[in-house]
Backbone:
């Protein structure tokens, strides 16, 4: 009997020890020498091209660690593959947060559905999340204390494009080709709303199903509508199919696209050279920019990036979305807690790395609200900047 | 544009894309006709062939007349390997088990292709530019569209003749109807099966190579066409080859008509609705003979 | 295996005391789990348990009735959306909403069963595929369902005991429903309905000659299968915390089918095993890094060099698909009865040892 009792006590002790894992008073994910930052991303699966985002952040962190880290702490980066599957995102985030040293903050993260699966979980734990890699309204509706959006809203981007097209290019017969998902519908909503403010209507709105590969009926509809401008809010593959189909149908409007397609060299390469004179928006400096900061990043890319990695917009986005977090970590100083990071982030006003100006405030969680308009040239390889950083009217 | 030209235009588009679907349907039907297996890996086998062709054409710079036949050869190898290494090794398989094996194959091929060539989409060079067109009146038909349709018709016609008149074709039909008896009659069923897979792989690869220049070459490029091809094969009757082509054409045309005149977003679902209606009337598909099960 | 000499012996719930004890041990382990392992493992257990319920449902259709379905993700989605929308719009409490959501899925299952009366094999597969596709498109397009973002999932309201977190409460509900479903399906398949299903599977013409009403049986099979799948879907909505149309696509339907076939058709144990294996593989398989290859003794370095020369290092994570595919193929190649077949073989081996 005594043996059983002591066994029970031992078991209870083990359970109690196991249950109470984190030391009281320590911030999870932060030690004297390390800050643990995590990111999920589609390294494989239907959104695999966007896996470059997580890899871009990795290179930025390696660059920072090489320079000595932040206030004596090195960044330990945990990125995992969620295959664009929200169940995996949640599993991976739970595993990181509840195991081992924990995670202090999350950065980036491609996808609306994937991010939404973990948004509440991170909120409950007060874990800061900076720069979701999607310009969705959901991150800031309603604003959360720990969630800092960086990517300008798709809705606002569409408005800027429409403003530019109507006022500068004097276009009035504008059609909209949109993906049948949240990204595309947000773009449609923004474009339509802004056209209405100019007293116009889209000539036609054509939706594209996610897995569709045959866009002949879509393009014929666009052609029949008599539009002279088509705003494309679709993914790169659909854009390429659209342009190729249109070329075969001898339909040549002014093509306009969102920042998702702002990687001009890639688009030119995969469209067989059709990506000429395309107007698009960009949320960050272009990969071809020669600014000092960009050149530093290129050096880091040359040094750390995996073989076969392409220096493109998605990769750059991984760096860009992490810049505000890095700045916030620097400003928070040596005494690093969730609250100190949040306060530091809220102190950002007109902070600019390679993106536009980013600012937060108490209750203000949409970091960047501006984009600029650019155009590819006759070769499709060079980009001509058409406007400065601008916001919609 | 007057009212008739867009209709004709969309019909032409539908028929040509239906030709590609028809090729996939033919490939699926051949394997089903010989072994009652639904080959889920068909699409990705075509995809990996397209990637292979791309890697011959672009980094290695081979000319088309060398690279494309080499790609077809590669496809046949893949088909043969699939049958020999995987399907044949299954012990006392039931149909569901074989389907899962093809599913596993599909994953292996998909993973391999994504690993080897990466996730960035690619542009497939072709000996016909996708923008070369014939213009007849108000109608614009691209060379590639015509080629796709021509290939589909040629393959379907050739296969119909083959199955009707050649010994191997009859042997394939016999293998499907009753494998035991076919063996007793002296047919080498194993070879017949191998041949079926090789043939199907080659035809699927043709579809892949014709679809690739119209869009991008990426690991998911054949998912949608595969689905449409499957729908077409079922519609036409899984054991009827002309039916498979017809089914593919119908799917392409219906899809495009609906997409143009009604709604582009529901475009993928409409072929299935049509199929359900048609299967209600002819449960074995349009052109297949309905074998009544005996107890 | 064991001889049955009376009808009662065939249908009784527990064949021996050993079975009862194992079941109790399993129940105890499930009940103790949240206190012994961390939240992450509880999440995995819940995920696997939801897929067990789905696999049981699909097994009724595929294993016991011999029908094919490539559209079960549609029922999963109907259950998820149904439960959430009933709670949001009608204010129903959780359990009735869950049950009603599953019933709505069952109603759709009945509808889908009607074409099954005339079709078989790939023809039926296409119809179910079309169904799954249609459901996905409807969810995406109709704003009533929340469009692309999906409806907001309410917080999990049930409390089994004080001091438990919402996650733990959810886990208990899932575990309880999984166990109940397993026992229910087990009983179902051993009694009259199960025999009718199997009779239809093995020869429907003969079955109808014996007095089995084909219409009733086939549609019932679809409806039952859809019910359990919908139940799993409703639980899944809370487990993930959000639902959107992209989750319920063809890939998921294929995953469900794989669970059932790899586990072993027409076997409860097989469905459970297949569900646990496939769902956890789906969640946990990770790609390897180059460093993992280099660590292989002897050939590691050369292998890593070969791989970097000929494969994209950025695509290395895709090896998980290759592994996943190899596992599925491997299991099915050597044992068409799937995991259950291996279990039987192991039992026979040990029982007849040393012969």
Residues:
């Amino acid at each position: 009997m005594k043996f059983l009792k002591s066994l029970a006590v031992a078991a209870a002790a083990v359970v109690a020890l196991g249950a109470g894992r984190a030391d009281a008073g320590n911030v999870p994910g932060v030690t004297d020498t390390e800050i643990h930052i995590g990111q999920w991303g589609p390294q494989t699966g239907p959104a695999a091209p966007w896996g470059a985002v997580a890899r871009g952040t990795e290179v930025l962190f390696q660059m920072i660690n090489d320079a000595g880290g932040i206030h004596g702490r090195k960044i330990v980066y945990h990125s995992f593959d969620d295959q664009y599957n929200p169940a995996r995102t949640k599993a991976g985030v739970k595993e990181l947060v509840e195991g081992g040293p924990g995670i202090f903050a999350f950065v980036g993260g491609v996808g609306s559905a994937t991010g939404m699966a973990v948004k509440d979980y991170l909120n409950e734990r007060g874990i800061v999340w900076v720069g979701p890699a999607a310009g969705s309204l959901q991150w800031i509706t309603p604003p959360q204390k720990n969630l800092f959006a960086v990517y300008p809203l798709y809705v606002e981007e569409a408005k800027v494009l429409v403003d530019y097209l109507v006022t500068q290019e004097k276009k009035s017969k504008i059609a909209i080709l949109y993906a049948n998902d949240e990204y595309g519908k947000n773009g449609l909503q923004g474009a339509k709303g802004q056209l209405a403010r100019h007293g116009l209507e889209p000539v036609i709105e054509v939706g594209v199903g996610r897995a569709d590969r045959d866009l002949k009926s879509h393009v014929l509809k666009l052609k029949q509508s008599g539009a002279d401008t088509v705003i494309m809010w679709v993914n790169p593959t659909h854009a390429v199919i659209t342009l190729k189909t249109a070329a075969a149908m001898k339909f040549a409007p002014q093509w306009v696209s969102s920042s998702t397609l702002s990687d001009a060299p890639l688009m030119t390469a995969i469209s067989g050279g059709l990506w000429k004179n395309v107007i698009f928006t960009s949320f960050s400096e272009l990969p071809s920019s020669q600014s000092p900061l960009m050149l530093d990043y290129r050096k880091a890319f040359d040094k750390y990036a995996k073989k076969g990695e392409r220096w493109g917009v998605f990769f750059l986005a991984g760096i860009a979305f992490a810049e505000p977090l890095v700045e916030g970590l620097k400003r928070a100083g040596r005494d690093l807690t969730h609250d100190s990071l949040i306060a530091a982030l809220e102190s950002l006003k007109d902070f600019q790395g390679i993106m536009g100006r980013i600012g937060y405030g108490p209750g203000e969680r949409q970091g960047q609200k501006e984009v600029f308009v650019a155009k590819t040239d006759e070769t499709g390889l060079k980009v001509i900047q058409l406007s400065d950083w601008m916001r919609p009217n | 544009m007057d009212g008739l030209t867009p209709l004709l235009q969309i019909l032409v588009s539908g028929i040509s894309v239906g030709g590609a679907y028809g090729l996939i349907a033919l490939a699926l039907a051949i394997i089903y006709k010989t072994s009652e297996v639904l080959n889920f890996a068909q699409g990705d086998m075509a995809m990996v062939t397209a990637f292979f062709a791309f890697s011959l054409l672009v980094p290695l710079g081979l000319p088309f007349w060398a690279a494309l036949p080499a790609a077809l050869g590669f496809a046949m190898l893949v088909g043969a390997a699939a049958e020999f290494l995987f399907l044949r090794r299954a012990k006392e398989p039931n149909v569901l088990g074989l389907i899962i094996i093809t599913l596993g194959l599909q994953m292996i091929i998909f993973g391999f292709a994504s690993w080897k060539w990466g996730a960035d989409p690619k542009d497939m060079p072709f000996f016909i530019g996708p923008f070369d067109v014939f213009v007849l009146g108000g109608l614009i038909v691209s060379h590639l569209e015509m080629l796709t349709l021509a290939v589909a018709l040629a393959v379907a016609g050739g296969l119909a003749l083959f199955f009707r008149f050649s010994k191997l074709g009859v042997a394939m039909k016999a293998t499907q109807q009753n494998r035991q008896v076919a063996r007793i009659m002296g047919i080498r069923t194993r070879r017949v099966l191998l041949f079926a897979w090789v043939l199907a792989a080659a035809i699927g690869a043709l579809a892949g190579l014709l679809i690739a220049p119209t869009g991008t070459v990426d690991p998911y490029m054949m998912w949608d066409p595969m689905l449409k091809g499957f729908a077409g094969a079922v519609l036409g009757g899984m054991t009827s080859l002309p039916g498979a082509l017809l089914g593919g054409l119908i799917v392409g045309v219906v899809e495009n008509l609906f997409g143009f005149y009604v709604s582009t977003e529901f475009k993928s679902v409409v072929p299935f609705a049509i199929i359900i209606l048609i299967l209600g009337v002819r449960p074995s598909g349009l052109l297949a003979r309905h074998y009544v099960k005996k107890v | 295996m064991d001889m049955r000499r009376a009808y009662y012996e065939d249908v009784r719930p527990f064949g021996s005391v050993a079975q009862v004890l194992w079941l109790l041990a399993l129940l105890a382990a499930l009940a103790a789990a949240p206190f012994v392992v961390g939240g992450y493992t509880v999440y995995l257990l819940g995920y696997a348990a939801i897929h067990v319920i789905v696999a049981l449902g699909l097994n009724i259709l595929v294993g016991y009735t011999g029908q094919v379905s490539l559209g079960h993700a549609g029922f999963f989605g109907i259950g998820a959306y149904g439960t959430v929308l009933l709670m949001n719009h009608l204010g129903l409490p959780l359990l009735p909403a869950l049950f009603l959501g599953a019933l709505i899925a069952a109603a759709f299952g009945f509808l889908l069963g009607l074409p099954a009366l005339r079709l078989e094999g790939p023809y039926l597969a296409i119809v179910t595929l079309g169904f799954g596709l249609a459901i996905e498109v409807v969810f995406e397009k109709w704003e009533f369902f929340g469009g692309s973002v999906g409806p907001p999932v309410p917080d999990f309201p049930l409390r089994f005991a004080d001091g438990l977190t919402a996650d733990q409460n959810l886990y208990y509900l899932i575990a309880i429903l999984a166990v109940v479903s397993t026992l229910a399906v087990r009983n179902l398949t051993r009694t009259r309905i199960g025999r009718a299903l199997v009779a239809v599977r093995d020869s429907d013409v003969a079955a109808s000659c014996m007095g089995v009403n084909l219409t009733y049986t086939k549609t019932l099979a679809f409806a039952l299968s859809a019910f359990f799948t919908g139940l799993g879907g409703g639980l899944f909505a809370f487990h993930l915390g959000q639902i959107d149309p992209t989750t319920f696509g063809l890939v998921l339907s294929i995953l469900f089918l794989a669970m059932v076939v790899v586990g072993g058709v027409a076997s409860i144990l097989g469905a459970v095993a297949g569900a646990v294996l496939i769902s956890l593989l789906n969640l946990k398989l990770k790609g390897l890094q180059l460093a993992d290859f280099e660590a292989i003794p002897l050939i590691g370095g050369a292998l890593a060099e070969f791989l970097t020369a000929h494969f994209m290092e950025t695509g290395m994570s895709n090896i998980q698909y290759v592994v996943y595919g190899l596992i599925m193929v491997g299991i099915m190649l050597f044992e068409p009865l799937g995991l259950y077949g291996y279990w039987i073989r192991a039992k026979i081996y040990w029982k007849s040892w040393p012969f």
The CA atoms of residues 47 and 240 of chain C lie 9 Å apart. The two ends of chain C are 16 Å apart (CA to CA). Chain C touches chain A at residues 35-36, 38-40, 43-44, 47, 137, 140-141, 147-150, 240-242, 244, 246-247, 282-284, 286-287, 308, 312-315, 317-318, 320-321 (CB under 8 Å). Chain C has 16 helices and no strands.
